[in-house]
Amino acid sequence: MALLGGTTSCVSPKTIVYFQGDTTRFSSQQITQKYIPTIQPSDILSIIVGSLNTEANEVFNTPNLFTTASTNYSSTGGGGRIQPLGYLVDADGSIEIPLVGKVKVAGLRTTDAADTVRTRLQNFLKEPSVIVRNLNFKVSVMGEVKLPAVYVIPDEKITLPEVLSLAGDLTIYGNRSNVMIIREENGKREYARIDLTSRAVFDSPYYYLHKNDVIYVEPVKAKMLDTDSRIRTVPLIVTIVGGISTLGILILNLTR
Questions:
Q1: pLDDT, tens digit, for every residue of 6-64?
Q2: Of the CATH numbers 3.40.50.150, 3.10.560.10, 3.30.70.1350, 3.40.30.10, which one belongs to the domain with range 1-22+137-256?
Q3: 107-166 pLDDT per residue, tens
Q4: pTM for the full model?
Q5: Cβ(173)–Cβ(220) under 8 Å?
Q6: Which CATH class is domain 44-134?
């Protein structure tokens, strides 16, 4: 306990307080970063079709009948992973819809994809309505957070503070000034460092998370020192306890 107290006593508010800036009672900041997700190959889409003919709708809604709405993969128990059903976007950026055939959706927003599918369905349904949702928009959170997991985002849009809130926030040992975000897009992998203690995070291109982003919160130096101290102390404690036990047995034998 003394070792733990020694390592945590150096923590200052500047290292753990988020979004530090001016101290005025009110201030405003122009929103400069925006992110509009688009459909990409390997996405899994839920496409809900409605029209005046309920029976005919079932032909197009069949792939969605057993769709799983899971907030995160860790909730399935035992590290299992539920794979949602739906329409898979192939390598060419298209989906295969019964009767309609292939429909190109890659590069479109889900609302635009819904309009495209609706137009194609007018040949089969009267006054069709279409809702498209991306079922595998997910981000991974690792490291010094309370609930590390892979989180599936139902509304296809989330910020870095929001996903860290889903993960139960950083632990006291999380390094708030050096959070790593790993992003794979357009054939390349990017590594970015974000300082959560500064309001500059709101202007970062990594404030809005993209599909498949990985967030890693590294431990502060105090955590590593504390862990190292515990590892070094365990053999000493074992030796002392072993010595006390041996001495006790020796005294017991002498008193008999």
A1: 444 455 667 778 888 776 777 777 777 778 889 999 999 999 999 988 888 888 887 77
A2: 3.10.560.10
A3: 999 999 999 999 999 999 989 999 999 988 999 999 999 999 999 888 888 999 999 999
A4: 0.71
A5: yes
A6: alpha beta
Structure tokens at 250: 């020796």
- 170 close to 164: Cβ distance less than 8 angstroms: yes
**Encoding tokens for residue 157?**
């849009």
Paired tokens of 165? 């809130």
* Stated length of the chain: 256
- How far is Cα 75 from Cα 70, in angstroms, rounded to an integer? 8
Q: Outline which parts of the chain fall under CATH 3.30.1950.10.
A: 44-134
The boundaries of every CATH 3.10.560.10 domain in the chain are: 1-22+137-256
